Amino acid sequence: MRPPEHVEAALRSQPRPVCAYVYDTAALRDRAAAVRAALPPGTTLLYAVKANGHPDVVRTLAAACDGLEVASGGELELAVAAGARRIVFGGPAKTDAELAAAVAAGAQVNVESAHELRRLDLAARAAGVVAEAAVRVNRAGPALPGSHAMTGTPTPFGVDEAALAGVLALRPESVRITGFHLHAVSNNLHAAAHARFIADAVDWSVDTARRHGVPLRLVNVGGGLGVDYLGDSTIDLDALRAGLAGLAVPGGADLIVEPGRILAADAGWYAAEVLDLKHTHGRWFAVLRGGTHHFRLPAAWGYSHPFTVLPVDAWPYGWERPQVADVAVDVVGELCTPRDVLARDRHVRRLRVGDVLVFGRTGAYGWDISHHDFLRHPPPVFDVV
Length: 385
Ligand SMILES: *Cc1c(COP(=O)(O)O)cnc(C)c1O
Description:
Elements: H1 5-12, E1 19-23, H2 25-38, E2 44-48, H3 55-64, E3 67-70, H4 73-81, E4 87-89, H5 96-104, E5 108-111, H6 114-127, E6 131-138, E7 159-160, H7 164-168, E8 175-181, H8 191-212, E9 218-220, H9 237-244, E10 254-257, H10 261-264, E11 268-280, E12 283-288, H11 297-301, E13 308-310, E14 323-332, E15 341-352, E16 356-359, H12 367-370
Parallel strand pairs: 2-3, 2-10, 3-4, 4-5, 5-6, 6-7, 6-8, 8-9, 9-10, 12-14
Antiparallel strand pairs: 1-11, 11-12, 11-16, 13-16, 14-15
Helix pairs in contact: 2-3, 2-9, 5-6, 8-9
This protein binds pyridoxal-5'-phosphate.
């Protein structure tokens, strides 16, 4: 993928050696509109902040979507600062302080266990309010295709369907349970399967609410709309729209969709300058001012991330510029570990020291999963004894 002109201009204006993420807010707004158009009219579209918590990205998507999904107290603060009209708070490890902050912010909480429901009840009682919550359920049914299954399989997320009756029977004084949260998968590229999952989640919610006397006001089907990192396609949004045509939650309850990846991925470009080129034991290596500490996804998922070469003609040194032509290179970072690899065995037509490699589709789970503020949980205490 080549960056659009305004992104290339931003990359060319960076100080050298170039090492930068460029985020394109117009691309965020365009993608939010495209995703919204694929969903049934009236669907609530939230942005899952963990995909990219840069304040400008969060603010742009808070405005372009109906609100934000957050998974920590730190993300909740970002969402409040971004002026989100609606906030949903999920995540399997909420602290009492985070539950109190969620109640204070008027967020709708996705409760993930009986213990957590009791703690939310305490927090709501202390604040003198009745909090609205959904129960996150790990359904018995089979998992969806995608890279990270969260339900239909053993995970720490949500209440096992077999234990749901016990949680719903608690009937806490200051929490009103009005729906279910059924986020199931990440990076699903199968539109028809995703549409079936959403329709099935609605049917299951209606049926489960009826059986347990839950006044159903919301069905949250989570995120998981995928992008293909090895190509330029995403989950087919036209096919998703066709698969969801006519879907509505009976009784006028709110259908909530909360993607992260598909909204932010194509708005981000990671660029790193080639600092050296070397040939060892029969392989070419392009060594970058950057690496997996900035962009961990290819190392975490075990694939080679595609890139384009941004040629830079300036050459400040008084000797011949190292370059290769028509060879395969391993693209590695500046860290002193052989695992700092962004791409292996990629053909380049020409590559020179001083050129810049540009990695597209890095706006979601790029910088964010690579640094210690991922998900905006507080850092550990460092106690030197
Ligand atoms: C991560 C997450 C999302 C967003 O998932 P994507 O795969 O980025 O669309 C939505 N909801 C919950 C609960 C999540 O944990």
